[in-house]
Each structure stands twice: as structure tokens, then as C-alpha cells.
Amino acid sequence: MTVAGYDLGHRGTVEAEHWLASLLSAAEGSPVACTHLVHGPDPRVVVTISGGAPPVAPSSTEAAAAAVADHAAGLAGRAVLFPGVRSLTGILPVATLLSESAIDEVVVLGGPPCEPDSRIDTRDFVRPQYRDGRLVLMATPAPGGLIAPFEVPNPTPCCANH
Amino acid sequence: MGHTHDHDHSLPAGGEAEQPVLDLSIPDSELSPAEVSRRGFLRSAGLLGAGTAAAATGAFAAPGVAMAHDHGPLGRSWAGRSRINTLLWLAGDHHIHTQHSSDAQYRVIDQVRHANAYGLDWMVITDHGSVAHAKIGVDKVNPDIVAARREIDDTLVFQGLEWNIPAAEHGTVFVHPGRNEVAVLKEFENTFDGTVKGAGDPTPANEALAISGINFLADAVTKRRVQDALFLANHPARKGIDSPHEIRGWRDANPRIAVGFEGAPGHQASGIAAPLGPGSGRGGYDNSPSAASFPQYPLESYRTWGGFDWMTATVGGLWDSLLAEGKPWWITANSDSHKVYLDNSKAGGGDFDTNGRYDDPVYAGSFASGNSDFWPGFYSRTHVGSADFTYASVMNGLRAGRVWVDHGGLIGGLDVRVRSAGSWVTLGDTLVVRRGAPVQLAVAIDLADGPNWAQFVPKLARVDVIRGAVTGPVKDRDVFAAPGTKVAKSFEVNQSTGRVTLTYDLGRADGPFYLRLRGTDGNRTAPGFLGAAVDPAGPAMDVLGSADPWTDLWFYTNPIWVVPNR
Question: What is the pLDDT of residue B91?
Fold first, then answer.
């Protein structure tokens, strides 16, 4: 599997995903794409892509190389594109989410573990993480007895003055 | 305003925090021999080390002051102003915005009138640091504050600002009123604000700029430009960008200035379910890790727990890891009021960047169900044990940690004492005892004796005593766990009116430790973040879009330390 890394100075995941969307409208196949947080004095987001044919030359930075290695080994990376992601919309049983997509496991924080028939409100925004070779979706209790992905689609913006 | 104050100038039993013996900026050579001896004793007890100033006074204070507990001339508020241990417990809020913030809307007098009506004795106006504020707003807000002080004479109104801490979150910075209050704040903002200076990234240089800002405030006090100044970090876990080493760095830079953080953030209406509420995260906590955040913080830290910040709500967590060092770091609870839930006004127009503020708010003709805030005093209160009803006393009380906080008026009053052999201390203080001496906790809680601002009388169900060993300064400045701290004792409260008294034997003092209290309405509990063995029934993680703040009420106190001597 060839993985390409892009260290283009995106400040956050929103900006990185925006770039990714514009790029992959021209890509072929069904790529897996992840974002990787680069902590430290120059915080930014690296994007990795495998299984596609991105028409842009990858980066050769240290951060890009580390992200590529994590992606290739399934050790880390927040998956934006992955097999089945397009079918994860609306409210679904967890069993359906697991069978329709590459997600291996749903972990609930702040509530009891979910069951196959637990219903998850995807909010049309599902961003599982690679951990130890598995694709894991962190979730949390949601209104109406549902669960929902921990990460919300439109969090209070990082630059909000609140 | 027809409200009289009980002006009692006697000092509290614990003494004021700035006793010279504790002020390390005063050299030993300027102290009396007795003071030098006392300082040496504290130092050897591990309590007066690098940067420790506020904790540690009480064992030397006169013991046995009779409890003079009366509710005084209440006049206006359900909160009341009770004198306990000769202290006035003054309710306040250090985090309030006005039309001088680009995301807020009210006049100063709007906020002050509401705060006063809802029972606040003191408040801090904290508009956001910004280019427009640094240039215009910080000046323009002052006459409005001065006018409000005249119009509302029984609520103290401080001028402050909400500092964009370089490399980190926001924080309250405020000063004692005076001739230079604007000049000092303006110079501070223009020199040290992370937004004004473009210093948001977590670089070593930006972290150093934050420390320089704290030092600037200390210098402004030392040089008598202002009588006093304080800094408290706001919503510390919201975005995961206040790393443990930064918090320790602020504290240790100057513990007279940097005294604590919000134990509970504002925006407490934010989790009320849609469509009648914002349907978001309680406290505005709905984020996930970013590249700028401290990578070791878990996802759970990005949500509130029973309305409180994870750093405070986690028994054995970040706050406890600070307290276990034996150094003072206090919590508060505030409104962060920008736009009030279900208010029917909206921001006035006008060019904020040009004018430094919006025009006055106007009638909206509709109810703002998407607004996430409460008026100051409506829901969140920071109760400060003050020697007097003065600006200086409130600042001293905050600095000394004589502070407890509550949501929704959960309790009416609180007297906490740790005692041994006839001596006792209260919140924020340190009891120094003979090694092996028996130590006891004595708590008197005045249950809520009237309705809160949701028009019901809150019912206290349980009080927890949280205890941890003092293990001294940490080697790893990014530690955020105190493995020895846990809930040591829980009291079920089985009465609904009057005063509850609790006593708890803390055993014989054979090593330094601290304790703090927490109470709940018992409506919503879960094993703590570090497990049931540490905290069997703590606050539960708040559910995004389904967090009714009125049915999940807690109070928290600041700690008391106990140190055995040789």
C-alpha cells in the first residue's frame, strides 16, 4: 500500500478536510485519507492518503514521514475517507455502522458500552481513529437515548471569542 | 440603594494573606525575629517553598473565635451575605462581557443591575483582549464602570479584561480600582495579549510572554501603579491548550498574581436541549483535540462533568496534582455572560472595530433560545470570605483561597474548619499541628432556605470529603494526576431545612495532607474519571445537547492543608 503524506501547514482539521475535498474530487478509486495532528511549536495538520491517485506531489517533511508510517501501520490517524463512509448518514444501529464500513469498533465515553442494536446519530460526520491496526470510533451518549460520535461536525470554532 | 453593610474591620481568624512572613518579595532582613522564625518554620514544613505565598497562616492565629453566624441585613438577595468566623462571604463573578466584546452585547449597567438583583456583591467586567479593545474599548468601558459603581453602590464593580494568554486559553486579569486602572490594563493588553501580539501558538517564546505578563502585573503592584492585581485562568480544559506545565508556570511565576482557574466555566445554559435551548456542550465545551492542544489530555477532558471543568471535577486529577504539591491554586465559578439565554434583546449595530464597541442593545421581539449564558449571579457564584466589603478585601480573600463555589444556589452558606488542639483554620489555609496530634474536620452547612432563580429550593443530597497526601513539588511539570487523592468520606444529607453539621476525624497527623469538599443534589452521578475506587459517585460527563443545568447542581470548596511539624 502506497501512502502519500501532505504537510502543507493546514492549521486545523477543517482546513485540511477542505483541501482534501478539493483534491479528491479529481482523484480516482476509493482512497483512505487521514488527518494527523502535529503538536509542538508549529502546530498543524498533516494529511495522508492511500489507495487513490492524488494529483499533487507529496511532502517530504519529517512530520509527513511520521504520519505516513502511522497510516501505513494503522497506528494513528483520524480517518476522513475510509471504505463505507458515504453510507454512514442519519441514525443507524451500531451493527449496521460496523457492517457497512471499515470501522472495527465503537467505544462509548461517558456512558455504558454500546450494543449492536444501540442507535448512533452519525450527524453525517464520522471520523474514526486508527489504533493498533483497528479503526475505532469514539462515541458518547446523545439526546434521546442515542449515542453519537464524540467529535461534533461544527464545534465552537477554535478562534471563537467565547 | 438602601442596603446597609455590616462594616466589621476585625481581621478574620486566619489573618490576611499578605502577612509579610508569607510574602517572599520581602527579604528576611526586613522581618522581625519572630517573623523570620515563623517563615523558617513554614519553609521547613515544605509550605513556603518556591513561590508559595498564600497558603499557611492559620495555626498561628488566635484560636477559638466564636462563630458569629448571622445573615445580617439581607435587603435584596437570596444569596445573602453571611458573616462566618467574622468573615463576610461575598458572592461574585470574575468573568463578564459587555458591548465592548465583539461577541457580546450588553451595556455595563445592564450586567451590573442584573448581577446586583441576582445577589452578587462583587463582579469583574472582562471584555476580550483584541486590537479594537486595546486601542479603544479598554478606555471606553471605564466611564461606564465608574458610573455603575455610583449607581449601584452595593455591588463592587472591578475593571478587568479577558486576556488571550499567549500560547494558551483565556484568563481574567483585573486590578483594584484607582487612578491607573485603565493605564495598567491598557499597557498590559498592548504588550502581552496573545491576539494583539499574534502570540497564540504554543511556542516557548509565547509561553514566556505569558509569564512576562504576570510579572508585569506584579511589578505594577510593587510600584504602586495599582493597589492590587489578580489573574485567573478561564475555561482551562475547553480546548486542551492549557498544558499542566503552563499552569504550573503561571502559578510559580507569581502566586500573588496568578491564583487559580475556573473550576466551572460559564455558558451553563449551552447544554439545554434544542430547540428550546442551544443544544450544545454545557459550558461551551464541545471541542476535540487540535494540533495546538496538549496531546496527553484524554477526550473526556473536552467535556464538562456536572457542569465543572474536567481538571477540577476529576478527583485525583489535574487540580489535585497541583494541590498535592502543597501550593495554592484556587477554583472559581462564573457566568462568562455574553448573551443571555431567552433574553429578548440583541446586539446593537455599529462598527465594532471603529468604535471599540457595539451600539446599545435593542429589543429583538423574540426570545434567544440559542444563547448559552445566564446573567451574572443567576446560576454560578464564587463566594469569597472577605474581611470587609471592599475591593481590597475581596481581592485578598480570593488570593487567600477563602473561596467556595456553587451552581443554582445549592446551599445557602458554608463554614468549614479543620481543627486540632484548640486551633483551627478555614478554606485556603494551612493548619500546622504537632506530629501525631488528632485532627478533625467540622463543617456547618446552611441548607438553601429559599428558592433559587429557577424558583425552586435546591436540596443537598450528599457531601464528599476529598483527601490527598501532600507529596511536594513535581519533577515532571506536565503531571496531571495525584494518585493518592480520593473521596475519603461521604455524608448523606437527610434534612431539607436548617443547618447541617458534620464532623469527621482525620486521624493523627503523621504527614502533610489536604482536603476539600464537594456536594451534590444527587441527581446525576457516575464513577469518576479515575474509577470508582477513587470517586464512586462523582459528577457524570455532561451530554452534548442534553444537559439541564438546574437538575445537576454541585458545590465545591477550595482546600485546607494540614502539616505536622517536627
Answer: 96
User: Final residue of a domain: which of B394, B426, B446?
Assistant: B394
Residue B241 distance to chain A (closest CA, Å): 11
Contact map slice: A 48-77 vs B, CB within 8 A: none
> How many Cβ atoms sit within 10 Å of the Cβ of residue A113?
9
Which domain-ending residue is among B363, B394, B425? Answer: B394
What phi and psi values does residue B508 have, to the nearest 5 degrees?
Answer: -90, 135
Quick one: B379 and B516 in the same domain? Answer: no
pLDDT of B520 over the 70 cut: yes
B10 assigned to some structural domain: no
**Per the structure, how many domains does chain B have?**
3
Helical H segments across A6-137, by residue range: 13-24, 62-73, 94-100
Which of A110, A143, A162 is nearest residue B303 as measured by Cβ atoms? Answer: A110
B372: Cβ–Cβ under 8 A, 6 or more apart, which residues?
B267, B269, B270, B278, B280, B284, B338, B339, B341
Residue B451 sits in a domain whose CATH number is 2.60.40
Rounded to a whole number of angstroms, the distance from the CA of A141 to the nearest CA of chain B is: 6
Residue B295, chain A, CB below 8 Å: the answer is: yes
Cβ(B191)–Cβ(B199) below 8 Å: no
Residue pLDDT, tens place only, B381-390: 999 999 999 9
Same domain, B388 and B419: no
Every domain of chain A and the residues it spans: 3-81, 85-149
Give residue-wise pLDDT tens across range B170-218.
999 999 999 999 999 999 999 999 999 999 999 999 999 999 999 999 9
B159: domain CATH number is 3.20.20
Q: What is the pLDDT of residue B43?
A: 52
B293 shares contact with chain A (CB less than 8 Å) = yes
Q: Quick one: average pLDDT of A92-120?
A: 97
Q: What is the extent of the structural domain holding B376?
A: 89-394
Q: Does residue B76 carry a pLDDT above 70?
A: no
Q: Is residue B516 part of a domain?
A: yes
How do residues B35-75 score in pLDDT, each as one tens digit? 555 555 455 444 443 333 333 333 333 233 323 333 332 22
> Based on the domain organization, do B338 and B236 belong to the same domain?
yes
Q: Which residue has the cell 474519571?
A: B529
Mean pLDDT across chain A, nearest whole number? 91
- Cell 491548550, residue located: B241
- Cell numbers of B142, please? 471605564
B350 and B456 both lie in a single domain = no
CA distance B128 to B160: 10
pLDDT at position B25 over 90: no
Tell which residue, B434, B432, B429, has the closest CA to residue B416.
B429
In chain B, the residue whose alpha carbon lies closest to the alpha carbon of A138 is: B299
Answer yes or no: do A162 and B284 touch at CB < 8 A: yes
Q: Where are the alpha helices (DSSP H) in A3-134?
A: 13-24, 62-73, 94-100
